[in-house]
Amino acid sequence: MLAALTELPGPFHIHLAEQVAEVEEVQAAYGARPVDWLLENAAVDGRWCLIHATQMKPHETEALAATGAVAGLCPITEASLGDGIFDALRWQAAGGRFGVGSDSNLRIAQAEELRSLEYSQRLRDRGRAMLATEVASTGRVLFETAAQGGAQAAGRDSGALAPGMWADLLALDMGAVDLEGRQGDGILDAWIFAGDDRMVQAVWSAGRPVVSGGRHVARDGIVARYRAVMRRLAGVL
User: Boundaries of each Amidohydrolase-related domain copy (predicted)?
Assistant: First the structure.
């Protein structure tokens, strides 16, 4: 099946090495840890997105990053489930790419996902500004890496403002109090570490507006359907 899969254009998304019990079960059944087994049996490349990957040995982290695949991280879910901490520092040093997603939908909050990723590295290693570089702040590294990795994982020509790219855009409300006086990288830092997604004023997907005035264009219908489903569930559970 894996051989046939590589003939398809992708992208390919799979959960991988999320929890200790999963790693132990795979190792018992196949004689290898999940990441080692996958790299040995599949031609992993930039078409692949490996979700979570929180339980990796250093050599697995470096080998997987070298394939050009995207790590699909869900920091809020991974914290909620006690999965573990993704080694973003080693992944970054090895040239790895990542995107972020909501997974369990416990919370759907882009800024919080990015903040949680950085804070997990700080808590583990007792440091500050862990993912920042000499030329980019922590917020810029988080946002740009996630935008580019997310676009790659979705198979979209986006993730940057450049000719030929899709117009997948986000606009922040510069009237928000936490953005007052901020410029350059400081805007992203303030949004991710001091603010939340209520600062998001507008979003466009391939040029089509999906958020306007801080509200999803279909919010009313979505909320109505959600409430109806929850009422039905309450009546049968």
Answer: 11-210
